[in-house]
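HOLO CASE FILE
Compound: zinc ion
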Amino acid sequence: MILQMMKVLLIIADGLGDRPSPVLGGKTPLEAAIKPNIDYLAKNGITGLIDPIAPGIIPGSDTSHLTYLGYDAYKYYTGRGPFEALGSGLKLEPGDIAFRANFATVDGNNIVRDRRAGRIRSGTDLLAKSLNMKIEDTDIFFKEGIEHRAALVLRGEGLSPEVSDNDPHEENVAVPKVVPLSKKGEKTARILNEFYDRSRKILNEHEVNREKREKSMPEANAILFRGGGVVPELPNFEIKHGIKGGYIAAVSLVAGICRLAGMKNFTPSGVTGSTDTNVVAKLKAAVEGLKEVDFILVNIKGTDIAGHDGNGMKKKEFIEKIDRAIGEVLMNEKDSLVIAFTGDHSTPASLKEHSSDPVPIFIHYKGSRRDGIENFNEMSVRGGTLRLRGNDLMNLLLSSANMAEKFGA
Ligand code: ZN
Ligand code: ZN
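Model generated. Tokens follow.
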């Protein structure tokens, strides 16, 4: 019998998993949320828990999304430099060398007085713009982040991350020259030292810093960088899995990873990456996109934001918002799609940080087994069919969609 292939919608509510919350009467946000659509799909589908990477490993959104898409994070995660730069919204290419950077304050003798430039809050966008330049044949991109944080990216031939930091990681010492850690790093070290010198001049003369001088505020007059890494070349998603993939993500980090995997962007305008986002627009764009590709990952960030804010009530309410959007957009599509819903990790509101707690997941498709759980949450799904690691997910989705091949005769 030839089975009908189905298309796959993977909804990742970022940081979905949680722990019991005092403000929710000892329930988790999922447990407390009124979410009839999610509960219907879970009840009539298969459910369980997923360890995004492995039991006891606390995932970042980058390492978990890599793993879910079938990429070994221990191989392709090349450090915080490249992945934070991806998160900055810079459109990176494989082979780019990226560093984490700080705006800092140094004195006339090049001594670091404040590694964070007084935790500068305004004007960093203007400062960052002035630091894009070309040195030799190398393009340099600089992008501001939150407060003093920024990303520094080098693109060109013959570059390597095998160089020292110029960030001394302490104050009241001089900014050291960058030195190559191997022969490969020589050109990169030379360019970084030139960048440092040029950026000192540019920043010193910049209007934003002139104003700070007048107000006797710490100037953001130097760039300290550290943790260089190379942007990885991810094997193309379509070649790897044999299906066309797309993504919808307001968060630059997730979008950047999917883009490196060669997936197509279907993100509608006006999504925010926070709890005020338009979930309906995202799911509608996904249904539309699935006419063109076979698989779409939708990342919905608000759950993680509420978790980091320590706000279990807001997380519960945001889950309810996702549920209403699922009700509005997906309930008519449920018999033609494989619909999977999970998180990329837990972000318990009680911790305000990611944890290694496994995350509940359901997969619903026409003809699937029915686990029959009534309320989809961290505890109830223990009675379900699935117990997964993140790198099982693509296999399971492909086989649910009748797109997997038999292993053996
Ligand atoms: Zn995440
Ligand atoms: Zn997070």
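CASE NOTES: The pocket of zinc ion (ligand 2) is lined by residues 15, 61, 304, 308, 347, 354 (CB under 6 Å). The mean pLDDT is 96.
CLOSED: yes
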